Amino acid sequence: MTIVGGMQQEELWDVDTARRYDTPGTGMFAPKVLGPTVDRLSELAGDGQALEFAIGTGRVAVPLAARGVPVTGIELSPPMIDQLRTKVDEATIPVIVGDMATAVAPGEYTLVYLVYNTISNLLTQAEQVACFRNAARHLIPGGRFVIELWVPELRKLPPGQQATVWHSEPGYIGLDTYDVLRQHVVSHHFRFDESRQAQLFRSPHRYIWPAELDLMAQLAGFELETRHADWAGADFTAESRSHVSVYRIPPEHQPPPSTKQREHESAQSRSVR
Predict the structure, then answer these.
(1) In the chain, how many H helices and how many E strands?
(2) Which of 5, 132, 218, 224 is 20 to 30 Å from 212 at the Cα level?
(3) pTM of the prediction?
(4) Are the beta carbons of 38 and 63 closer than 8 angstroms?
(5) Contact 173, 190 (CB under 8 A)
(6) What is the dihedral of CA 258, 259, 260, 261, to 10 degrees?
(7) In this structure, what are the phi and psi dihedrals at residue 160, rounded to the nearest 5 degrees?
(8) What CA–CA distance (Å, rounded) separates 51 from 107?
(9) Confidence of residue 105 (pLDDT cuts 50, 70, 90)
């Protein structure tokens, strides 16, 4: 279990955070953000089922299910699931409580997706690789794993400086503090008004370079199919701040044999010598 700053991951996504998470019509819930996301995922799912890792309050899953795509979720935080249940019931969107790197959902899927930088909530490289392998475990041959992730902005970090302000507007400041040795970044979200009081929410992440992400995919049996700068399909360039990467299990892919299968095959091979 990953702990940062004395706090366990699931403690970050508590009842208060779940209640404040949804911002209908604005931010990541704005139609211009959510619309292209759901359009692309619906296209990639085709006639099959979709599985969302870290489904949260259903920001993407609810409108995707409304398009007719059967959606199942995996989620670590019960309060986030409770918030989802105010929108749809278990029959509409089943959810497995667990870690997206290890939890298993029943069924077979044409699409697994992980949006809005959430793979970076896994704070070690080993956990992130395990997440890819868990996605592969759920997919049929030819199935796809989609990741939306930001590009690390270390070019903005002068030598000797450990923090950058990435957004500032009236009533809000967002800044990131970096530990470049471990590829860790903590996002600090300050919200304030005319009083002397401010609200702070912090979220720890392990940032991943696109090339590193591709190697994780390769270890799990995926091939990179496409990479764009956004959900609408803009070209990914050296100046892109984020990317939507689509990985695919080759249609002819066969899962690696289990340990018992390898032992059985080895015994058969010895018996015929």
Answers:
(1) 8, 13
(2) 5
(3) 0.84
(4) yes
(5) yes
(6) 50
(7) 85, -10
(8) 10
(9) very high
